[in-house]
Design brief:
The protein is an alpha+beta fold. It has two domains: 98 residues, no CATH class; 178 residues, no CATH class. The protein is 20% helix and 20% strand. Strands 1, 2, 4, 5 and 13 form a five-stranded antiparallel beta sheet that branches. The protein has a four-stranded mixed beta sheet with strand order 3-12-7-6, with no helix packed on it. Helix 2 packs across helix 3 and helix 3 runs antiparallel to helix 4. The longest helix is centred in the C-terminal third of the chain and has 24 residues. The chain is elongated and about 75 Å long.
């Protein structure tokens, strides 16, 4: 179920009854296209604010760390395209203690390839699959060990992604033992296409879908971490006047109304309307501050921590200068 019960057509009908210019009646013959474009712009203006709207938050499909693998190509996220990251949970998934050990890595805008392995990753970023590092077909009769289970993985795996001979990105979706020759899907295969390789199954993922990079390499044979990113969804595009205002809930719809009204006035051929629309947009942007306050009534679990000290470190012959070692 979506967040909204209001269609874009309803918003336009309500606006024009106030005497505001209706772009759907444009003499150019492209009125419907303009109306959808203006609505898409308003939606982006609201959702792209530097604020984590609860109604626009989504949990990505978890992925699992693998031997020496830093990059994890993924199929398109079912809940929508990743706009930017909010939080991440990292669980030692095969650990039999209750509760299972859990950590909270940070989202980063970008991470670079590394050759260093540490106990567990501390940072995650999203990247397009086409920009991620891929492995190679491991060869014939190679066992790929499952990542889940009380004793998993039972051995060291190769990187569980590859570029096939036809340029498709493949990821392992069923573990087993490889066959006698490298798998390949048909050229330009659709995402989700599967290829059998002995008892292993590989699936195609699109180069423009989003995968993940960790800041360090997992160990050779575990432990397996389940990584679950939470993110803000990229703004949707309006393609029909009957489309709902999702993900904006009805309680926030007034901000969409005001924004669209200002855009309609600015699109009017009447200079007086254009001027009025520009003034209304300023008022609307100020009102957006009220919208963020509406969604920010609870205490936030996040906090700001400096990446580096604000004061340069100094050393003496016994170590760093500190309050209890000032000389």
């Amino acid at each position: 179920m979506g967040n909204s019960t209001i269609t874009l057509s309803t918003v336009y009908n309500d606006i024009v009854t106030k005497g505001v210019y209706d772009p759907r009646r444009s003499a150019s013959g492209y009125g419907d296209s303009l109306a959808l474009t203006l609505a898409t712009q308003v939606m982006a203006d609201i959702l792209c604010e530097r604020f984590n709207w609860k109604f626009n938050s989504a949990v990505a499909t978890p992925f699992f760390t693998n031997s020496w693998q830093q990059d994890y190509p993924q199929p398109a996220q079912a809940q929508g395209t990743i706009g930017w990251g909010e939080s991440v949970t990292l669980i030692d998934i095969n650990n039999t203690t209750l509760p299972k050990p859990l950590w909270t890595p940070s989202w980063r805008r970008q991470l670079i390839p590394v050759s260093v392995s540490t106990w567990r990753p501390f940072n995650v970023c999203w990247m397009y699959n086409k920009d991620l590092q891929l492995g190679k077909w491991p060869g014939a009769d190679v066992t790929l060990y499952p990542l889940l289970g009380n004793s998993a993985p039972a051995g060291q795996n190769p990187v569980l992604s590859m570029l096939d001979a036809n340029g498709n990105i493949l990821i392992v979706t069923t573990f087993g033992t490889t066959g006698s020759s490298a798998p390949a899907a048909p050229a330009n295969a659709a995402e989700g296409t599967t290829v059998t390789d002995g008892s292993v199954v590989w699936s195609v993922v699109s180069g423009t879908s989003q995968g993940f990079r960790l800041d360090t390499l997992p160990g050779a044979s575990g432990p397996t971490y389940q990584v679950t990113p939470t993110y803000q969804i990229d703004p949707p595009k309006f393609t029909s006047a009957m489309q709902l205002l999702d993900p904006i809930p009805d309680s926030y719809s007034r901000y969409f109304y005001r924004g669209l009204e200002s855009e309609c006035l600015q699109a009017s051929p009447d200079p007086a309307d254009m001027k009025r629309g520009m003034e209304m947009r300023k008022q609307w942007l100020e009102a957006m501050g009220e919208a963020m306050k509406q969604g920010d009534r609870e205490l936030n679990a996040f906090k700001l921590l400096p990446e580096n000290s604000a004061v340069e470190q100094r050393w003496n012959r016994t170590g760093t200068y500190t309050a209890d070692n000032p000389y």
